[in-house]
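User: Hi! I'm working on a homework problem where we have to compare a predicted structure to a textbook description. Could you give me the structure for the chain below?
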Amino acid sequence: MADQVQIHCIAIDDEPPALEIMKNYIEAVPVLHLEGAFANAVDALSLLQKTPVDLLFLDIQMPHILGTNFIRTLAKPPKVIFTTAYRKFAVEGFDLDAVDYILKPVSFERFLKAVNKVMRLNLPVSENFPLKTRENTNENEYIYLRADRKNIKVKLSDLLFIESLKDYIKVVTKDRTIVSKNSISVLEERLPASFIRIHRSFIVSVNKIDSFTHDLIQIGKFELPVSRSYRHQVEKVLHI
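Assistant: Happy to help. Predicted structure tokens:
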């Protein structure tokens, strides 16, 4: 087996508990090498100037300077995964070509999902990286949904799209439709990166898209709207 090349990264967060969690997550993933952890971006700047860094895990709402503004100050910024408690920064984060944007509190599963996005970029990462997540085993992965007084198993490879219906969600697969009392945002956190949010009411499987425009995505007989607030990140994924 070839030697595993590591991704050198830095974590920046002004909240000590959040920074400690991020450090623990990074140390748990063999392909990631933590070069340093900092409570503010200014302290991290000197390390960035003298040490090659591939990836930043960067909080946005911090003293002295916002994480998004800090990235703009760097002549050649590394790849960045933003972490924040504020959803309002999402569009700005993707405008800066962020690899991902994670809402706090950050679960380890969601962290791994972001790391897998990094794995698909042209960073010096060994193909032998052994990380096991939903993305690696999508064909065999499944979720359970509560409906009709029972838990129904749904294979992710069968799932076409999810629609929000206020307090319920409608999950459409290739051979059935399931209505479950659930939140689309909660379900979004359980899905791999092969599923993308295209509208506040819709999540789709990228692998099931038959055609698309800037405003619509077609999956089989279904035409689903792409909202303005999600259009930029949809275009990034679909390379429109």
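For your comparison, note the following. Residues 124-140 have pLDDT under 50 and may be disordered. Helices lie at 16-27, 41-50, 67-73, 90-95, 108-119, 184-190, 228-238. Good luck with the assignment!
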